[in-house]
Amino acid sequence: MSTKKPSNIKQLGSVLLISMAAGAGARFIANKTRAQESRAYDYDTPQQLIDWKIARMIALRVSQWQLFPVRDRAGRQTLYENQVAQSQPLIDEYLNVTLPENLSRVQVVDRREWIEANLRSFEHLFQPIEELYRSAARKSGRNPAITSLNRGFVGAQVGAMVGVLARKVLGQYDLSLLSPKADPGTLYFVEPNISLIQTQLGVDDHDFRLWITLHETTHAYEFEAYPWVREHFTGLVQRYFNELGGQLDTIRNGIGTFLQRIFKGKSDGDSHWIESLLTPTQRQIFNELQALMSLVEGYSNHIMNAVGREILPNFDHIEQRMHQRKANRSLFDELFNRITGMTLKMQQYEQGEKFVNAIADHGGKELAARVWEGPEMLPTLEEIRNPQLWIARVA
């Protein structure tokens, strides 16, 4: 499932990588031009790494949202609310856990509404990076014109990625990372995309939507039934952003070390090219994030398969048709996935599902559920790739 409908959790890895690379590039350009510019820096003007107005404009244009409205919004809203309510007791039984409160934040959205919601989330998520960027700008005395050019470039880059994703995403469990209030997340269903894919595949209307709902509802359990998961996940993201301060200092003091990391970066097929920009500490944190995201996606797929086969008579047909669609992706989709790192992330999410399946085959759903006992029970990225290592450690 993770290969077809990326949520904000899945997008996080690629967004972190792209934003860091673009920010580093902007940093390098500013340093090169600083000596050639004599105009004074305006410290009273708020400076940003990302121009969110440009990001929004590009995202909406790329998404072609006007061509795909929500049809029968009220009817679909009722359907998804009922399917979430139907999914909850099934997941309760499988996980042997209940949510603190029933899921009530369910929204049917079009592509534009999904873009608006995610750009708001990303803008909040990027605040720590923006603060680091402004601090670095003050230390360097950067020219405001160059800053404006840079933030427009990064804004267009983020907007293009969000716009393309808006054409693909089917469902999403959205939670506010780095928010001081741990509010329950929202389940989004991008109905125009769901309707389009359901028609193209020729699968049952009701069953296809329940298939999606099971997956997204499981995400809610992973973050709300086990409150420490959100806290741990947020902590990793915060640590990653804190490390970016050192990244900016490295580039400001000279690009020698920075370039060394690029040329010495791994090329073993397990890393994306942008990951060569990471410091050793950043790479360690990023691997922890990837392991957690792989587990989150893999566990949702595992439950969807286990529960879905019991209640959906068309389950295997839906799976078959979705696999065929994945195998016939367009050249544009392949290029987009490779450039943004989505291909690598999809592979890791598939590994996450294999990991959960392996430990469930070894010790049943009771053993699989132990991954949610606490941070010390989370698998490492190496254990995700080799489940027997986790089984041996836990046993």
Main attributes of the structure:
single chain, 395 residues, mainly alpha, Lysin, 3-stranded mixed β-sheet, 16 helices, 70% helix, globular, disordered N terminus
Give structural notes.
The protein has 395 residues and is mainly alpha-helical. It has one domain (8-290): Lysin (Up-down Bundle), CATH 1.20.150. Helix content is 70%, strand content 3%. It has 16 helices and 3 strands. The chain has helices at residues 8-34, 52-63, 73-95, 111-125, 127-140, 144-166, 191-201, 205-224, 227-253, 256-263, 280-311, 315-327, 331-340, 342-368, 381-385, 387-394; strands spanning 106-109, 171-174, 186-190. The protein has a 3-stranded mixed beta sheet with strand order 1-3-2. Helix 5 packs parallel to helix 9 (227-253), helix 9 packs antiparallel against helix 11 (280-311) and helix 14 packs parallel to helix 16 (387-394). The longest helix has 32 residues, at 280-311. Residues 1-11, 17-45 and 251-268 have low confidence and may be disordered.
Short description:
The chain has 395 residues and is mainly α.
Strand content: under 5%
Q: For the record, what is the CATH homologous superfamily label? A: Zincin-like metallopeptidase, N-terminal domain
Total count of helical runs of at least 4 residues: 16
Q: What's the arrangement of strands in the largest beta sheet?
A: 1-3-2
Shape: globular
Give a quick account of the main beta sheet: strands, pairing sense, barrel closure: 3 strands, mixed
The helical percent reads 55-70%
N-to-C SSE string, H for helix and E for strand: HHHEHHHEEHHHHHHHHHH
Number of domains: 1
Structural class: mainly alpha
Q: Please give the CATH class.
A: Mainly Alpha
Mean pLDDT: 78
- Kindly provide the radius of gyration, computed on alpha-carbon positions and rounded to a whole number of angstroms: 22 Å
* Model regions low in confidence, pLDDT < 50 over at least 5 residues: 1-11, 17-45, 251-268
